[in-house]
Amino acid sequence: MEPSGVVEIVLNRVDALNAISTEHARAITSVGRGLADDETMRAAVLTSASDRAFCVGADLKERRDFTDDDLRRQRLVTRETYRSILDLPVPTVAAVHGYALGGGLELALCCDLIVVEEDAVLGLPEVSVGLVPGGGGTQLLARRIGWGRAADLTFTARRIDGEEAYRLGVADRLVMAGEARETALQLARQIAGNSPVGVRNAKRAMRLGMDAPLASGLDIEDAAWRATAFSADRKEGIAAFNEKREPNWPGV
Q1: From 126, 136, 188, 205, the catalytic residue
Q2: ∠ CA 60-64-69 to the nearest 5 degrees?
Q3: What's in the keyword line of the UniProt record (predicted)?
Q4: Which residues is 173 bridged to in the sheet?
Q5: Who's near 93: CB < 8 A, 6+ residues apart?
Q6: Which contacts (CB < 8 Å, 24+ apart) does range 245-248 have?
Q7: 221 in active site
Q8: Of the residues 25, 106, 162, 192, which is catalytic?
Q9: CB 151 within 8 A of CB 79
């Protein structure tokens, strides 16, 4: 963890372009679950150790000899993997380069923000191999870019580059080749400079309220406001503003 409170989660199955095997899924889950209760963490960045790929999705070579029961058992494991990233209480940023396909793109979609390199290759190819996206893709992509655009990408299984991903809203920042990781880290550091209590409560309110009726969403926002407004962070933030200095956030 950086002194700023930014954590970098590195996908590191380089020999397989970070294909998600059962073992790799368990490793990602272990890291995600381990970070969930870390009160010193202020933001997380999901990156790759591979020069060629962010993540190419499920390890289909491992599944080649799977029985139906094997696949059912693995499914329990992989669902936890995606939730371990989606449920992190701090803002998360995916740094996408190279291939981000299937479950790899879904890992990025589990993050709050996505930085993509212009020559990256993204897609949800599951229907082309007799599957459907199972890491949240059918839900998260539509919430990001709307039904029609998500349906286009999901039903055709076509691949898009980083520029189109940015244009469609799949990604939030578009950068040149080789710049995704550093840009994502800089973005995370900027987020980490703000009130930890405020940022966590803002994320919680946005996540809980996203699919709620407006009236319910406003109640969720009010609860988040109250949890933040009477915190030590709010007192420090107001004091720092009036004293024209950088805040020293208590984080409570």
Answers
A1: 126
A2: 100
A3: Lipid metabolism, Lyase
A4: 115
A5: 43, 44, 45, 46, 111, 112, 113, 114, 115, 184, 187, 188, 191
A6: 247/195
A7: no
A8: 106
A9: no
Active-site residue 103, yes or no?
A: yes
Q: Which two tokens stand for residue 12?
A: 């590191």
**Catalytic pick from 98, 102, 103, 104?**
103
Q: What confidence tens digit (pLDDT) does each residue in 85-142 have? A: 999 999 999 999 999 999 999 999 999 999 999 999 999 999 999 999 999 999 999 9
pLDDT digits (tens, 9 = 90+) for 90-106: 999 999 999 999 999 99
- Band (pLDDT 50/70/90 cuts) for residue 247 is very high
Select which of 58, 94, 171, 205 is catalytic: 58
Catalytic residue flag (residue 215): no
- What are the φ and ψ backbone dihedral angles of 130, each rounded to 5 degrees? 80, 30
Counting beta carbons within 10 angstroms of the beta carbon of residue 144, is it exposed (0 to 12), middle (13 to 18) or buried (19 or more)? middle
Q: Which residues pair with residue 122 across a beta bridge?
A: 100, 160
